[in-house]
Amino acid sequence: MKVTALANSNIALIKYWGRRDDQLVLPANSSISFTMDEQLSTKTTVEFANGLVSDDVCLDGRKATEKEYSRVVSFLGLVRAKTGIKTKAKVVSQNTFPKSAGLASSASGFAALAAASSKAAGLNLNEKELSMLARLGSGSASRSVFGGCVEWHAGKKKDGSDCYAEQISPPGKWRDLRNIIAISSMEEKHIGSSAAMAVTSKTSSFYSARLKSVGKRLAEMRNAVRKRDFETMVPIIMRESDSMHAAMLDSWPPVVYLNETSFRIMREVLAFNQSQGKYAAAYTFDAGPNAHVYTTAKYAEGIKRMLSELPGVMKIMECKIGEGIKFSEEHLF
Ligand code: PMV
Fold first, then answer.
1. Any residues with Cβ below 6 Å from ligand 1, and which?
2. Which fold is adopted by the domain 174-319?
3. Cα–ligand 1 centroid distance for 225 (angstroms)
4. Coil, strand or helix: which one is 161?
5. Residues 6 or more apart from 275 whose CB is under 8 A from it?
6. How far is the CA of 15 from the centre of ligand 1 (A)?
7. How do residues 178-194 score in pLDDT, each as one tens digit?
8. CA distance 102 to 99
9. Fold assignment, 2-170
10. pTM recorded for the entire structure
11. pLDDT tens, position by position, 230-270
């Protein structure tokens, strides 16, 4: 059976950086994100087909690179282990955004792959189970199973049975929210997130301090999300991004994802808030230099204008808050 699934990427407000178990991809702390709209989305078709001698993986119209291929194949191995099927699979995947744009594609990619491959293998997983499966491909993918605002619970159990994502606020409550993305680099990361988070948790003395303070930020964020109080969320979002990047810089060897333009954007967003006399916009950065500026519709044009005038900004996108996983009958092969 051929199955096609679509998933959107997500951008965290409270970040996942570091694991309590590498094998099971159990995070050291819970995280909270918003799922983006279809501009940052992956569509994936999977079929387990008799007659294939090896898995066949095609991404964005080309054969997967060796690195991509082995990541997809080990994920398919997990799905096979759950069902006992031995058949090889054909996987075709398409991103709506260029992979080279330096935007998180593993979240939407593994959420779509988890949904399409599990269904194609005959597993009928609910959303909680899907988030647990997607997590094994890429931690942040667990959150992309759901739309709106999503919390991924770190859990405490060794077997990871209490580590899953769930929606904490539906997308309909956030029609007014925007993520203005400023792209300042299209280069590949110098170090992947898994390797980088391992370096940070092993070597950074700021990291343990971060883990102590992140619990408080999580509770405050949850509360503000429930009340739909964006102004309260703004400083928490920025301080959380700063905390993660400070711990990265304190690692040895240092992990540096931000560039000159990223720092310029941080300053300009702070100045924008000052000029408005309120917390109107919040910057946040993942494992890359591209800025995500959360703001409301009222300030979106002002933020876009400000960002477009900054040297180093190559492209600007405006995303709304999107939905969780969807299935489609329009297959890619
Ligand atoms: O899902 P991964 O392994 O690519 O890690 C993502 C980590 C951050 O994007 C930096 C933070 C997050 O919570 O999404």
1. 12, 15-17, 31, 104, 106-107, 138-140, 193-194, 286-287
2. Alpha-Beta Plaits (3.30.70)
3. 20
4. coil
5. none
6. 7
7. 999 999 998 888 889 99
8. 6
9. Ribosomal Protein S5; domain 2 (3.30.230)
10. 0.97
11. 999 999 999 999 999 999 999 999 999 999 999 999 999 99
